Amino acid sequence: MEKFEGPLDLLLQLIEREELSISEISLSKIADQYLESLKAVVERDPDELADFLVVAAKLLLIKSRELLPSAAPLEEDGPSLETQLKMYKIFWEAAQKLEALIKKKRRIYFRDKLPASIAPRFAPPPSVTMEKMHAVFLDVLVKITPIIKYPEERMKKVVSIQEKIDRIRGLMDKTPTMRFHEILDGSSDKTEVVVNFLALLELVRSRVVNAEQSEEFGEIVISRLNGGDATPIN
């Protein structure tokens, strides 16, 4: 993986490497690769790492929708991750074009080479006044919003699938049969609910537990199977 400047830059590189279009289906396909790439940002500044974890949570939500297409959709805060990535790509491509133009027409003037009679000055068109520039600048500031906007309370806790797998196995050691809502006790937000469900799917896939649902949207009953083992997720 090439160097990346932020979570959206990493996402864009993964999608372009796989030659995918920007869509929720594509984001679901590269979710595991994104989580694997987070190992490279563990040593970054905590504030910067928080941005990567927010995107990781959104990718898990998108992947859960693909696994459960009939589930009721959850309301997202702000623009979707697909919209954010499309916007980022537009700005990234524009930046590449500007950089190419600058490199192509680069001119360097040293102060001691300029004629002494030429004083540095800013000479805008006569119609551009200081007042107009100030008004335009304020208008731009009002319209600018962060690409990733998230409430501070969403960063209180980082939840891993492996952590939830270990917790479910611990509960099943004490109670061989239980209901899914009992696993969710103490879950603080929708992201933690999604991670719990992904952990349950991994345990079912590994044949550690069996999950049954007698009716649509009914309670999920979980029972432990003998001889199963879940492979740890690194």
How would you sum up this structure, described in words?
There is one protein chain. The protein has two domains: 1-150, no CATH class; 157-224, Arc Repressor Mutant, subunit A (Orthogonal Bundle), CATH 1.10.10. α7 packs across α9. The longest helix has 24 residues, at 81-104. Helices cover 50% and strands 6% of the residues. The chain has 234 residues and is mainly alpha-helical. A hairpin with a 6-residue loop joins β2 (209-213) and β3 (220-224). It is built from nine helices and three strands. The chain has a three-stranded antiparallel sheet with strand order 1-3-2.
- Our estimate of the beta-strand percent is 5-15%
Task: Tell me the number of strands.
Answer: 3
Class by alpha and beta content: mainly alpha
**Tally of separate domains:** 2
Shape: elongated
Largest sheet: 3 strands, antiparallel
Classify the helix fraction into a percent range.
Answer: 40-55%
Radius of gyration: 25 Å
Major sheet: arrangement of strands? 1-3-2
Notable traits:
Arc Repressor Mutant, subunit A; 9 helices; disordered C terminus; mainly alpha; single chain; 3-stranded antiparallel sheet
Give a nutshell description of this structure.
The chain has 234 residues and is mainly alpha-helical. It has 2 domains: 1-150, no CATH class; 157-224, Structural maintenance of chromosome 1. Chain E (Arc Repressor Mutant, subunit A, Orthogonal Bundle).
How do the strands and helices of this protein lay out in sequence?
Layout: H1 7-17, H2 24-29, H3 31-37, H4 46-67, H5 81-104, H6 130-143, H7 161-174, E1 177-179, H8 180-183, H9 190-205, E2 209-213, E3 220-224
Antiparallel strand pairs: 1-3, 2-3
Helix pairs in contact: 1-5, 4-9, 7-9
